[in-house]
Amino acid sequence: MNNHIFVETDDTLNLIQMNIDINKRAADNIRILSMAMVEKSKSGHPGGAMGGADYIHVLFSEFLNFDPNDPAWINRDRFFLDPGHMSPMLYSILTLTGRFTTEELKNFRQWGSSTPGHPELDVLKGIENTSGPLGQGHTMAVGAAIAERFLASRFGELFAHKIFTYISDGGVQEEISQGAGRLAGFLGLNNLIMFYDSNDIQLSTETKAVTIEDTAMKYTAWGWNVIKIDGNDQKQIREALTSAMGQKHKPTIIIGKTIMGKGLLDNEGNSFERKTSTHGMPVSEAGGSFEKSLVNLGGSLSDPFQIFPEVSEHYRKVLQSKQKTSSDWKNAKSEWAEKNGQLDKKLHSFYSGEIPAIDFKSIPQKEGSATRAASAAVLGVLAKNVENMVVASADLSNSDKTDGFLKNTHAFINGDFTGAFLQTGVSELTMAAIMNGMALHGGIIPACATFFVFSDYMKPAVRLACLMQLPVKYIWTHDAFRVGEDGPTHQPVEQEAQLRLMEHLKNHHGDNSMLVLRPADSNETTVAWKMALENKKTPTALILSRQNIKDLPSENSNRYADALQSERGAYVVQDCKGRPDIILIASGSEVSTLFEGAQLLEKDNLKIRLVSAPSEGLFRNQPESYKKSVLPDDVPIFGLTAGLSVTLQGLVGPKGVVWGMNSFGYSAPYKILDEKLGFTADNVYKRVKEYLAG
Ligand SMILES: Cc1ncc(C[n+]2csc(CCOP(=O)(O)OP(=O)(O)O)c2C)c(N)n1
């Protein structure tokens, strides 16, 4: 029960003397706002938000550094929410700190509102990450913590700041927490402070129905500093945060036992706390009393969205003090900049996302390389020239050829972030979410790699990168059944089609949510990397071959110049005189197979146009006139893909024919697979002849 003696007087000291705890009052205000938002919109999650209110108030008012007038201040502490369903808590605290208005809270979950059901990245509003898919938020925080260490090791400890994150039972249960926990402990990320809102209740059951885990022991085993507290006791919260702030070598998890729906009453005035039902529905719908709970928490029936005047006054002072901290830092930074002009320039270029001028055309490529090897050649140059690029690999750096980068730097280890390579171990989803966190932190260009077939393990984080429009680069090698002997578990078939769907899906700015490039030879790979670096608006995928590929022909003996046409998504590699009898189209290594097939067809006096289509999505965005110039309506089109046939359906059109895969692959040497599965010049010849014969 909450007993507030509320005396209306301007004298704050007086209030303290009368034993009114402003901090408790502020947390209750957050509880009420959270409850009221969900009640008004008739949907959402009040219970968890109400339990976490004490922590969030203490964190934001006493520990988190931010600039009330400059939300994008580079040295702000970051707050990453993991359970996005607890958005009411975040929107409420951000209302107290002036980033949201109560009007915006009243529009919770409505069309066009700035308060969507789950928070969506908006730094200017204080939302550091999109959250909702449980487990990813705190993993992004690990990425941001790595980014912070990377930058501080280059620019100095003036640039040190904390990364706070907030996790719930769901996030702890998600498998990704294994990777995040292991890596944060391994790297000794003492700048990372995670609050675990342990309220013993989840969506459909209590936690005891699904786990007997000793979470404290688990995090201890991973090398974390573990603190257990009553998560609704503000004194304990304060002490835990103070101790965590002083941690020198380990990340901290503060396991706070909290009360789901703290302060709730039912219609009879009995406690309605600790109910699973209040996880995800309005209090009244769950069987509690909104009005009685509101009064119990010291709120006003006439205005449930009220910010209590004394809370408002308290936060006015909090903001003044935050402002002072950031101004002091900015003064110190100006002094630093005067003494470190060159470094300051570099810092600015890192944060502005600039890329240094790179002479891509001069990057030497070996004739007939695998595109993964061609990628390694580019990565070697990037390692030396793009100082803020961080590359990661999930224990495959020698196969996915990110070793081209690694050879020029070294991997992060505990306490040493002077390198630029992250060995994530075998944890693809963790890796992808960490990359998102690095991109969100700012100052870093993240890229990560694994086998293409394991892109499936990464999709949930790739999807969030697309939604948040983060320019993460994915290097996916071993792009087809030509993986060979490893067999169908390692042979991608349907993966490219899935990514082409992401090219169809638009982000909220109307752009393709992702740029997906499958280059056809070494020069196209150089160009693909150029495009990937220049693409600051969305993630980019590079899909690369394991096996060597013959370079495509160039009429002007300048294959790089030809390959630059990849910037239009698809282009004519080799043309015939006059109207073609057939257009052959593919991406990746299948283009060179088509080229060989074309040579056989030409012997029959057929006029052939060969088209390489590294990105169907980009091609679709070209002016109609260009698209028609490459793929006119009245010419038959034959496509070849080592993916599902549907991968090329959109390019060959309704009358076209695709030779592709329609089943899983098989274990065998890849040249045998080429024969058996029909990925040979002879089969191209045969299928095209059949097609033209009608
Ligand atoms: C990856 C993922 N799976 C499932 C869900 C659906 N979901 C939302 S919250 C939740 C459980 C929440 O329990 P907890 O994390 O303890 O939050 P609390 O009940 O304390 O609010 C689930 C399963 C989700 N958001 N993300």
Describe the structure.
This protein has 694 residues and is an alpha/beta fold. It has three domains: 23-262 and 303-323, Thiamin diphosphate (ThDP)-binding fold, Pyr/PP domains (Rossmann fold, 3-Layer(aba) Sandwich), CATH 3.40.50; 360-543, Rossmann fold, CATH 3.40.50; 568-693, 3-Layer(aba) Sandwich (Rossmann fold), CATH 3.40.50. Helix content is 42%, strand content 12%. The strands form three sheets. Strands 7-6-8-9-11-10 form a six-stranded parallel sheet, sandwiched between helices. A five-stranded parallel sheet has the order 1-2-3-5-4, with helices on both faces. It has a five-stranded mixed sheet with strand order 12-14-13-15-16, with helices on both faces. Helix 18 links the parallel strand 8 and strand 9 (473-477). Helix 2 crosses helix 4 (87-96), helix 3 (46-63) packs parallel to helix 4 (87-96) and helix 3 packs across helix 10. It is elongated. Bound molecules: thiamine diphosphate. Thiamine diphosphate (TPP) binds at residues 45, 47-48, 83, 85, 132-134, 168-170, 174, 199, 201-203, 260, 279. The site of thiamine diphosphate has 18 residues, from helix 3 and helix 7.
